[in-house]
UniProtKB/TrEMBL annotation:
Keywords for this protein: Cytoplasm, Hydrolase, Magnesium, Metal-binding, Nucleus
PROSITE patterns (alphabetical): STAS
Reported function: Phosphatase that hydrolyzes imidodiphosphate, 3-phosphohistidine and 6-phospholysine. Has broad substrate specificity and can also hydrolyze inorganic diphosphate, but with lower efficiency.
Gene responsible for this protein: 1280466
GO molecular function per UniProt: inorganic diphosphate phosphatase activity; metal ion binding; phosphatase activity
The species this protein was found in: Anopheles gambiae
Reaction equation(s) it catalyzes: diphosphate + H2O = 2 phosphate + H(+)
STAS domain residues: 1-82
UniProt name for this protein: Haloacid dehalogenase-like hydrolase domain-containing protein 2
Domain of life: Eukaryota
EC number from the UniProt entry: 3.6.1.1
Cofactor(s), names only, from the UniProt record: Mg(2+)
């Protein structure tokens, strides 16, 4: 069977292209090579600590060439979900991320909770406020718990750090309200990131999370390439239980070289 040429690469950001304010090894030049090879790119991210504008500015500052509209994040998808469902949420988000979300209506009661990665909000005071909003649920009062994503952990400059998933699960447990997950690995998120005219078989996903990035994309027919520069920790796996992804590579640059080399062999 002929291998289809890669037309689009969906690329994770944190842990794949950069860790905080440092690009991963060779990533800036590798992104240029990928574009020169004729592959379209789209940056898909569960990052919720900062707005799209702040994330774009950060990436440009550390050397990446991209357009703001090439960034497709779970934060923007969550904002669209809030608008479409006419919600008036209590936000467990950073102040910066909050600027991407619809404003609250002070004339209406809070009817939902939106949770992203917001370390300074994950204290008893704010979590208890979220609990009280969700605890209103009754036969006559419907409420929603919206998880921008349910990441377990992520790679920070000082090591692995706790993600928002455990706080989402804690609110589910205490209130009985199931969460609606917006970001990766949600199938809707991946499909909505694809431009018109691009088939999933012509796409690859490159990321540092075996499940949310790679296996999530593979479930809809893409290849999923895993890098070792972020949250994936190869030392925690044996050969027998290593993630069943399309390929595991030391860096993003190595994935790009694989894509280019594979294309040359066709």
């Amino acid at each position: 069977m002929a291998v289809q040429r890669v037309k689009l690469a969906l690329i994770d950001l944190s842990g794949t292209l950069h860790v905080d304010d440092q690009p991963t090894v060779g990533a800036v030049e590798a992104l240029k090579r990928l574009r020169q090879h004729g592959v379209q790119v789209k940056f898909v991210t569960n990052t919720t600590k900062e707005s799209v504008g702040s994330l774009y500015d950060r990436l440009r500052k550390i050397g990446f060439e991209l357009q703001r509209d090439e960034i497709y994040g779970s934060l923007g998808a969550a904002a669209e979900y809030v608008r479409r469902n006419n919600l008036n949420p209590y936000y467990l988000l950073t102040d910066d991320a909050r600027t991407d979300m619809p404003p609250n209506d002070p004339e209406r009661a809070l009817d939902s909770v939106v949770v992203g990665l917001a370390p300074e909000r994950f204290c008893y005071e704010h979590l208890n406020e979220a609990f009280r909003v969700l605890h209103q649920r009754s036969v006559k009062q419907e409420v929603q718990l919206v998880a921008v994503h349910e990441g377990r952990y992520y790679k920070a400059k000082d090591g692995i750090a706790l993600g928002p998933g455990c706080f989402v699960k804690g609110l589910e447990y205490s209130t009985g309200v199931p969460a609606v997950c917006i970001g990766k690995p949600n199938e809707y998120f991946f499909r909505s990131a694809l431009p018109d005219g691009i088939d999933v078989a012509e796409c690859v996903m490159i990321g540092d999370d075996p499940n949310d990035d790679c296996l999530g994309a593979m479930r809809i027919g893409m290849k999923g390439y895993l890098v070792e520069t972020g949250k994936y920790q190869p030392e925690k796996y044996t050969d027998e239980d290593r993630p069943a992804v399309s390929g595991i590579f030391p860096t993003f640059s190595d994935v790009v070289q694989h894509i280019i080399s594979s294309s040359a062999e066709q």
